[in-house]
Design a protein that fits this description.
It contains six helices and six strands. By secondary structure, it is an alpha/beta fold. It has one domain. The protein has a six-stranded parallel sheet with strand order 2-6-1-3-4-5, covered by helices on one side. It is globular.
Length: 181
């Protein structure tokens, strides 16, 4: 089993000292960023692809750092609003901790009771990492440019470059491209 650190940069929109907070999370993760995507459900697709290829064990833990829980519907097509629901449905032993300072709502109001009840046993929410949460085997970042100012986005991406591979950094000399690696 593996652990994923899943960071959506919209989390930092209302955070004091956002670059410092992102640095702290990435330093705790202690591994290079695997990839950066613009739309969050694309990260889930890449996780699934790595599991299928055998380069990532099925996750047992996902630390979901985001302003949104991303469990807003049960549609069969994965989208930015429901991909965490699909992750929990796909990996039935995976625990998800939604790290957010002020939750805007709960998946409970979006999902059917019979769907939410079993998922809720593996889902937690809080403003900090749970004690003993395993360090990640994979770190992914979502830029969500429609949910964050371009100025903050660029500042956060510049800070994150220190946690990228040399190959990824070489691709960032021009204007930032969201899909790296």
């Amino acid at each position: 089993m593996s652990s994923i650190l899943d960071i959506d940069l919209d989390f930092f929109d209302l955070v004091e000292n956002p670059e410092q907070k992102l640095h702290e999370l990435l330093a705790w993760g202690d591994r290079p960023i695997a990839f950066v995507v613009e739309k969050h459900h694309k990260a889930y697709s890449r996780w699934k692809d790595r599991v299928k290829r055998g380069t990532l064990a099925p996750p047992s833990h996902i630390l979901h750092v985001d302003q949104h829980h991303d469990m807003m519907d049960q549609k069969s097509n994965t989208n930015i609003a429901n991909f965490m629901y699909h992750a929990m449905k796909t990996w039935k032993n995976c625990r998800v901790h939604w790290m957010v300072d002020t939750p805007i709502d709960s998946p409970e109001i979006w999902l059917d009771d019979d769907v939410w009840r079993p998922l809720s046993q593996r889902f937690s929410v809080g403003s900090n990492r749970p004690l003993g949460w395993p360090k990640p085997d994979l770190v992914s970042i979502c830029t969500s440019p429609n949910f964050i100012s371009n100025d903050l986005l660029q500042r956060l991406l510049r800070m994150a470059e220190g946690f990228m591979t040399a190959k990824q950094r070489a691709g960032t000399g021009k204007k930032w491209k969201y899909r790296i690696g």
